[in-house]
Predict the structure.
Amino acid sequence: MASFLIRRAIQGVVTLWVTWSLVFVLYFVAPEDPAQMMVSRGATPAMIERIRVSLGLTRPIWQQYLDFFGRIIHGDLGYSFTSGAPVSTIITRALPVDISLAIPAAAIWLAVGLGIGFMAALQPRSRRAIGATVFVLAGLSVPTFLFGISLIYLFDGLLVHWLNFFPLPGENWTPIQVNPVEWAHGLILPWITLAFASAATYVRLSRSSLLDVLGLEYITAARARGLSERRVLYVHALRAAAPPLITQFGIDLAAILGGTIITEVVFGLPGLGRALIGAVESQNLPVVQGVVVATSAFVVVVNIVVDGLYVALDPRVRTA
């Protein structure tokens, strides 16, 4: 297993190198001059040249390339064109929001999705299975932004005058170290919004995965040997059905840690997704570059961890 993880770590490093090299090409070698983009139209050529020198754009491309990777390794992602704040500071301030969204929402969609999916697989012709199918269709059909806006309208629009359940968008975020109760209170609707569509995916995936496993010969042989249905299900079937779910979970968790753009914009949360949207609108290239670098690192690290769990659950992957 150690050699497998080492190989995956090497592959991850190569993936990051390719991704960050593309970021370098888009930022430093693209037709647009970064110095020209960060100043107003009335800037003088001398002012633009001073900015190019301060950014290191007058050096040879190979030296800019080495400097670029050296800054990333040391955590220096540059400075925002608009605020002048370090990009690394912007990311570290936004990251707790995405972590606060990702972990509880993941727990919700796993509990709901796996529970409903496994129930539907064990009772495929029951009314509960039909209800699970309706839930999947609804979760996959309703856009995330529409579901989030509907929750806001329901709880902060129709019922706000009587119950005042949840804070309005833009007032949702309270750091957990400041007030844990207010932190959870402000994120309940975003958690539900994120978990709704993902839970539907996990219902469909867990149901199909468990149904496939329950039809295999070794499950029939285990029942023929007199093993209890509980042991057949929890010891044999669920372990074999878990790897596809773990793979999907790693992808979804990495995506949320990289910024949930729609949910953050709908609920006014100051996460990476909202920071990226603002940077794109203002052509704030260092922030765009920094978010892409950080997001790619999240995706690679999470996938390596998921691959390790995959191998631990299914030794056949290690042999292959």
Q: What stands out?
A: The chain has two domains: 2-73, 91-319. Residues 87-122 form the longest helix (36 residues). The chain is about 75% helix and 0% strand. Residues 221 and 227 are 9 Å apart (CA to CA).
